[in-house]
Write a structure and sequence with these properties.
294 residues; mainly beta; Beta-galactosidase, Chain A, domain 5; Aldose_1/G6P_1-epimerase; isomerase activity; carbohydrate binding; Gal_mutarotase_sf_dom
């Protein structure tokens, strides 16, 4: 476990998946990041989604008319990353293609993930490099899960999600069957005045992927506490919200997406997938987001 620390927060990150395991308040002794602790809801904490987001139809994709398997959310979250730079404020991880990744994804790449703790902000920066002699298609996302309520203050339904700048009408991608898209964009009827009241029933029909363009910040807060989380999307065009369907799991995932799950019904060519980035030979793409704490 790699740790970043200042006087207020300690961040724990695993080399497996370069995944945040903990963002701990040293002043008030509670963790913002979800840890299942044997409850059996969800064993992960904040996985990195690469080179796919969501579930591919038939767990596969097409490349030059050949079929390749692709696990849900890709393989990055289950690969061991190498630490290439480390201090008490910043750590850099790297993953390059290897025999296991090439079975699923026959491309030469490097994925660099940097975490930096500065005051009450955790900044996450991803850099994808194309090391091969052909274009590199990929999706990239983050999947941090947060304990709700914060520090046992209030109940799940006391919390709300709001957006900055204010969105006139919130829209979402239709999800059917779970977890696939159905190709529709529909009103987010659960929203009220740019705010979504949190409830366990909110996710009974699957994750919520906001279709609005221009959202910069997503804020999770409650009148029952002064604590809040603000996710600044920076370079990510989409954001998803998720908790377990038809369960009373005390967490919420706020997920910056650069890419989208498949539409149900057919396998997609990886170069034609909606939302994918295509990097040219020797190309490089950097995307970042940040988690601000209070």
């Amino acid at each position: 476990m790699i740790q970043l620390e200042n006087t207020k927060y300690r961040v724990g990150i695993s080399e497996l998946g370069a995944e945040i395991q903990s963002i701990y308040s040293l002043e008030e002794n509670f963790d913002y990041i979800w840890n299942d602790n044997g409850l059996g809801f969800w064993k992960r904490h904040a996985p990195i989604l690469f080179p796919a987001i969501g579930r591919s139809y038939n767990n596969a994709y097409l490349l030059n008319n050949d079929i390749y398997e692709m696990p849900q959310h890709g393989f990055g979250r289950d690969q061991r990353f190498m630490v290439t730079n480390q201090s008490h404020k910043k750590v850099v991880f790297e993953l390059e293609n290897n025999e296991k990744t090439e079975e699923l994804y026959p491309f030469d790449f490097k994925l660099i993930v940097a975490y930096e703790l500065k005051a009450a902000v955790v900044r996450v920066t991803f850099t994808v490099l194309n090391l091969g002699d052909k274009p590199l298609p990929f999706a990239l996302g983050a999947h941090p899960g947060f304990n709700v309520p914060f520090n046992n203050e209030g109940n799940y339904s006391d919390y709300r999600i709001s957006f900055d700048p204010v969105q006139e009408k919130l829209k979402k991608f239709g999800i059917a069957p779970i977890p696939f898209r159905n190709g529709e964009v529909i009103p987010l009827n659960e929203s009220q005045d740019n705010t979504i009241p949190l409830s366990h029933h909110l996710f009974d029909k699957g994750l919520i992927i906001l279709a609005n363009q221009g959202i910069k910040n997503v804020i999770l807060s409650s009148s029952k506490t002064t604590h809040l989380i603000k996710i600044t999307l920076r370079d990510f065009p989409y954001v998803a919200l998720w908790s377990l369907e038809k369960e009373k799991a005390p967490f919420l995932c706020i997920e910056p997406f650069a890419g989208l799950p498949d539409i149900y019904g057919n396998e997609h060519d990886i170069f034609q997938k909606e939302g994918n980035t295509i990097l040219g030979v020797n190309g490089e793409k950097t995307l970042s987001y940040q988690i601000a704490l209070n």
